[in-house]
Amino acid sequence: MGEMEGKSKDQLVLRAKHAEQAERYDDMASAMKAIAQMLKGSLDKQKVEAELTAICNDVLALLDEFLIPTAEDDPESRVFYLKMKGDYYRYLGEVAVADDREEVVKMSEEAYKVAYEEAANKMPSTHPIRLGLALNFSVFFYEIKNSPGEACELAKKAFDDAIADLDALQEDAYKDSTLIMQLLRDNLTLWTSDQDVPGEDD
C-alpha cells in the first residue's frame, strides 16, 4: 500500500474525503483500496462499509452528472472518467452482497467496457490511461468476476499491443506506461502460476 501502510481506518477515510474534496482522484482511489483491504478484519465492519459506500456513491454521482458529460470532446478525459466509474463500482462490488453486488458488478463491467472500446479506437496502445484501464479491467475480471481466463487474455493483449508499439511511446509518458506494463506482466505471471489458464509461459 506504500504510504497508506500503517494508517488507521479513520485516517484513511479522512484522507479519502480530503482527496475527494480536492479532486485528487488517484489519491482517493489509493485510500479507498486500502480501506477495502482492511474490511475483513475490522471490528466495525458495517460502519466502514457504510463510509466506503457513501464515498463511492458521491464520486459516481459526480462522474455521471458532471465529469463524463463534459468530456465528450476530450477522449483522454472521457476514458479516464469512465475507467474511474468502473473502478468505483468495483470498490462497491467488494463490499456489496447478493442482489446489490450483482447490480454494482454489472455497472462496473459496463463502464469498463465502454472505456475499453473508446480507448481502443481513440488512444495508442502505449498510452498510460489506456494501459491503466486494461490493468484495472483485468483485475476486475480476476478478483470480482472470478474469471482468470478473461483477466489473463485482456492483460496479455494490452501488454503485447504496447510492446509492439513501444517505438511510438511518447517520452513524457515513458515512465508511467512502462510501470503499468510491468504491473500487467507481474499480474500475468502471478495469475498464470496460480491458475491453469492460457497465457504467459513464465
UniProtKB/TrEMBL annotation:
<dbReference type="Pfam" id="PF00244">
    <property type="entry name" value="14-3-3"/>
</dbReference>
<comment type="similarity">
    <text>Belongs to the 14-3-3 family.</text>
</comment>
<dbReference type="InterPro" id="IPR000308">
    <property type="entry name" value="14-3-3"/>
</dbReference>
<dbReference type="InterPro" id="IPR023409">
    <property type="entry name" value="14-3-3_CS"/>
</dbReference>
<dbReference type="InterPro" id="IPR036815">
    <property type="entry name" value="14-3-3_dom_sf"/>
</dbReference>
<dbReference type="InterPro" id="IPR023410">
    <property type="entry name" value="14-3-3_domain"/>
</dbReference>
<feature type="domain" description="14-3-3">
    <location>
        <begin position="9"/>
        <end position="202"/>
    </location>
</feature>
<protein>
    <submittedName>
        <fullName>Ftt-2</fullName>
    </submittedName>
</protein>
